[in-house]
Amino acid sequence: GNSVTQMEGPVTLSEEAFLTINCTYTATGYPSLFWYVQYPGEGLQLLLKATKADDKGSNKGFEATYRKETTSFHLEKGSVQVSDSAVYFCALWGDTGRRALTFGSGTRLQVQP
Amino acid sequence: NAGVTQTPKFQVLKTGQSMTLQCAQDMNHEYMSWYRQDPGMGLRLIHYSVGAGITDQGEVPNGYNVSRSTTEDFPLRLLSAAPSQTSVYFCASSSLAGYGYTFGSGTRLTVV
User: Residue B102: beta bridge partners?
Assistant: First the structure.
């Protein structure tokens, strides 16, 4: 079946540092890939997505590139802010199997001033 | 512009009680799902639906029941609450397969 693996957290960075959160997936065919963000006490918001190999999703300074050859969708940001502190979830929607999103376990990011 | 509405926001149940978590969306989305979120475990799929009258089980369906009689509503029923069902529950919807979900704000359920 489909699965998503994310790096363990928490990730603690100083403001303006470079961020990478690793995400790899297992799925047959060509899934669509997503990053969601959850701020404290809130629901999940779609951050960015990519629907085919080599696509780059971007939003609010965050980027992720769909790498079919390494089955990865790593999240990056060049300069994090305190307001980026949240939990980040990688997810996929497979083109086979359950017609729903499969999520990774989430990575908590803490940005210190 | 309501999006996905979940009620109640908080609920405390006694072991063995039953209840229904409500989920409604006003975007005419075909795809709807229920997830539970537990610390360190991400979001796990309970049940999902691809349209009115069509539902299917996710990863953790035991103890939960769903129906989809209309496009707008997708209630989740707890048949006999257990402490292991203490969690935060999220409902989500999408217009197209692979398009990405819109999430509700969640229901925090405690079973004592």
Answer: B93
